[in-house]
Design goal:
By secondary structure, the chain is of the alpha+beta class. It has helices spanning about 15-40, 45-70, 150-185, 185-190, 195-210, 250-260, 275-280, 290-305, and strands at about 10, 75-80, 85-90, 95-100, 105-110, 115-125, 145, 210-215, 225-230, 235-240, 245, 265-270, 275, 285-290.
Length: about 300
């Protein structure tokens, strides 16, 4: 679908403006009549006169406010990268604005002509307040003339814009994530991570290698940080964000966790290094020792082979 560039503004039609100006002038007219009537009543019925006067002042104020609103109206509907805005003025913020992440879909009800829109429904994912309980905004007073031959096509395109903008946002998030992971191919950057972020980083590497993973809660994990599974084979992972040497006692406890969980393989991953006795003790056992140097090499290899294409 070929779409016009954003933003698109649909201004109120001249017919709508004339109609609403008439309403504003009528409010002002009846207000002035009320003020005159209150002056006549103030001679005998002071309380009634004061009541009529205050009521009339309200009419005049509402009329002038409405007239200013009509004259300053810049658009009845605006479609932008941020979302959909309704009834926006030149000199103040949008009356109603809905960001794309809150929009579920947009529906339009047309009049006899596709240039006259009777109602615009912006269906929201979740109402943000009680007064939005109907889950949509309505343009009731303004028919729209946007200068397009077929506005129905444009409004069908709103949902297409929404999809594209969401896709662009997802791609941007993927780019940022990829750039973040690329930085972690340097050991000094990995060592700066907090323990939880380090576990998430290791988990991401396993996911990219085709594993299904689940993180433990942290407390009472019995030495297991991540459960991994692939091809029906279950394994466990322990992450040690150390700068020093991991001793043999850590590996012995981890091997016990492996037997307890009936795991077929285990990964002990650290940003530090392993002592020589630890490496010897692991020989002949289904335990993979990954030190800091090997970790960043592994990460670089995995990220290179699973590079996200945009």
């Amino acid at each position: 679908m070929t779409l016009p560039p954003l933003p698109i503004e649909f201004g109120p039609s001249e017919k709508s403006k004339k109609r609403d100006k008439k309403i504003a002038y009528l409010l002002i007219f009846f207000g002035i009549i009320g003020i005159a009537l209150s002056c006549l009543l103030s001679g005998g019925e002071g309380d009634v006169g004061m009541f009529v006067f205050m009521f009339a002042i309200c009419f005049v104020a509402i009329g002038f406010s409405f007239l200013w609103d009509v004259n300053s109206r810049k658009y009845a509907l605006k479609i932008s990268k941020d979302g959909v805005s309704l009834l926006g003025n030149r000199d103040r913020r949008n009356d109603w604005k809905v960001n794309w992440d809150k929009v579920d879909r947009v529906e339009c009800e047309f009049g006899v002509s596709t240039k006259v829109i009777k109602r615009i429904n912006i269906i929201l994912k979740k109402p943000s307040s009680v007064w939005m309980a109907y889950r949509y905004f309505e343009v009731l007073w303004y028919s729209i003339d946007g200068g397009f031959d077929n506005l129905e096509y444009i409004f069908r395109a709103i949902n297409e814009y929404q999809k594209r903008i969401r896709l662009e946002k997802e791609e941007q998030e993927l780019r940022e994530k990829e750039a973040y992971l690329r930085r972690l191919t340097k050991l000094t950057e990995v060592q700066k991570l907090d323990p939880v972020s380090f576990e998430k980083f290791v988990g991401e590497l396993f996911v990219r290698m085709g594993y299904t993973i689940s993180y433990t809660k942290g407390s009472g994990d019995e030495g297991v940080d991540i459960f991994i599974q692939k091809d029906g084979k279950q394994g466990i992972v322990q992450c040690k964000r150390y700068t020093g040497v991991v001793g043999q006692y850590v590996l012995r406890d981890f091997f016990g966790s492996m037997i307890h969980n009936k795991a077929k393989e285990a990964y002990l991953i650290t940003t530090g290094s392993f002592s020589l006795p630890t490496k010897r003790w692991a020989q002949g056992k289904p335990i993979h020792l990954v030190d800091g140097t090997r970790l960043v090499e592994w990460a670089e290899s995995v990220l290179e082979t699973t590079k996200t294409k945009y």
